[in-house]
Amino acid sequence: MKTKLNITGNILIYYTAIILLMVIAVSSLMGIVISRYQEKHLLAAHIEFYPELIDVLVDKDPLILEALSDNESSGANSKKIQAAVDGILRIKGVVDAALINSDGEIVAGNNRDQSLKEVESDQQFIKALSGYTDYKYSKNDGIYTMKLYIPVKSGGNIKGVVYLSESGSHLTSIVHGSSSTVFLIIVFCGMLLYLLLFYIFYHSYRKQSTINKHLRQTQDVTIFALGYQAELRDLETGKHIERTSAYVKILADELKKHSKYKSYMTDDYISDLIRSAPLHDIGKVAIPDSILLKPGKLTDEEFLVMQSHAVHGSDILERAEERLSFPSFFKIAIQMSKYHHEKWNGTGYPSGLSGEDIPLSARIMSLADVYDALSMRRPYKEAFSHEKCVKIIAEESGRRERKKF
Fold first, then answer.
1. Is the model's pTM score more than 0.85?
2. What's the rounded Cα separation, in Å, for the pair 109 and 95?
């Protein structure tokens, strides 16, 4: 029983480990996907702020349009135009800004050394000249950098482009911080879901274990009751089925230590042996009282009828097994019932099997049955000591059983 509990405990561990890995994998994947989706939309919302700012700046300072339209006429006001660009640079996170006319010439900014060819070849600048705000977003050594090209419009015409670059810890904290928070929230929710699933499963597991335990106990009691029904008709045997079940367990546990039977005598097999033992004499219910309860020696004809209890028992159990849709311990119970009176030398009944043709379960049951008969008092004999029982069984080796079991 302890081993069975360990097996079911391992199943619980395996299940929870698999579910935990699945929850971590799914929540991590969801976290990555959603955080990237959130990052994309966060950037879009962040970027939308700048075109609105430039529109306000152009409306407030018409010199910007003049500078973009006619660089010569704006020379006298270059300081004012530069001041407008410096205002953009004061926005938190902006590290670079410039006004670029439609020819790609930088008319104001903090990066006046940027070459005309470099600007003209920039695809983001070319796209901005067509009226669309464009940006380039990159990450280097954990630092996020974003370059924006914002078209400056007047009367439906593109007068130039405002270029700015945002970088450093501010943008990094906005993007990375928000993405990490979303990722952690999703993983945390995944762990809460796992704990909820674990609680539901563990509660169901405990409840089902209790139900299975009660069902197994009910089955064991039912089996015992069936075996006891046959025993009640033969009061001389006393608690025969209880004692023989205990002997079967002792023999099976010892056989498990033997190298030849170690792999065969599993815990489940031993459990089925013990459950089957009470049914080994169930066929006696078919034997008439005149024979079963006869105090004297049986005639040859009566003994043949008594021998039929082995076949009657297996027939009863086979009919029960036919109603099952799955393998059960009845296979072992049938073997025990039918063959526990077979002998190693082939002189037993009902089939005259010999040697290892006799199922191991029946051999174990036979030995337990003989030991109980020898060790208990009968009308025709006194109870033998353990030592005498062992001596008699050893002397019968090779007839009832082989020399070394």
1. no
2. 11
Token duo for residue 281: 């004499």
CB 253 within 8 A of CB 275: no
**Which residues fall within 8 angstroms of residue 365, CB to CB, at 6 or more apart?**
244, 248, 277, 280, 336, 340
Amino acid in the structure at residue 135: Y
DSSP state of 114: S
Q: Which long-range contacts (CB under 8 A, 24 or more apart) does 72-81 make?
A: 74/107, 78/108, 81/107, 81/108
What was the pLDDT predicted at 234?
61
Q: In whole angstroms, give the CA distance from residue 121 to residue 117.
A: 6
The pLDDT-based confidence of 68 (bands split at 50, 70, 90) is confident
User: Using DSSP, how many helices (H) and how many strands (E) does the chain show?
Assistant: 14, 5
Q: How far apart (Å, rounded) are the C-alpha atoms in residues 36 and 368?
A: 72
Write b or e for each residue in 126-142: b if 16 or more Cβ atoms lie within 10 A of its Cβ, otherwise e.
Answer: ebbbeeebbbebeeeee
Mean per-residue pLDDT over the chain, rounded: 79
Dihedral (CA of 378, 381, 386, 388) sign: negative
pLDDT tier at 196, thresholds 50, 70, 90: confident
Length of the chain: 405
| Residue 190, CA distances (Å) to 25, 131, 182, 304 in order | 9, 44, 12, 72
pLDDT above 90: residue 132: no
pLDDT digit string, tens, across residues 318-365: 998 888 888 888 899 999 999 999 999 999 999 999 999 999 999 999
165 Cβ contact partners less than 8 Å away, ≥ 6 residues apart = 94, 95, 96, 97, 145, 146, 147, 148
CB 228 within 8 A of CB 239: no
H/E run at residue 318: helix 309-322
Helix (H) or strand (E) segment spanning residue 164? strand 157-167
User: Encoding tokens for residue 379?
Assistant: 């009308």
The residues, any chain, with a CB within 8 Å of residue 248's CB and separated by 6 or more, are 273, 274, 277, 364, 365, 368
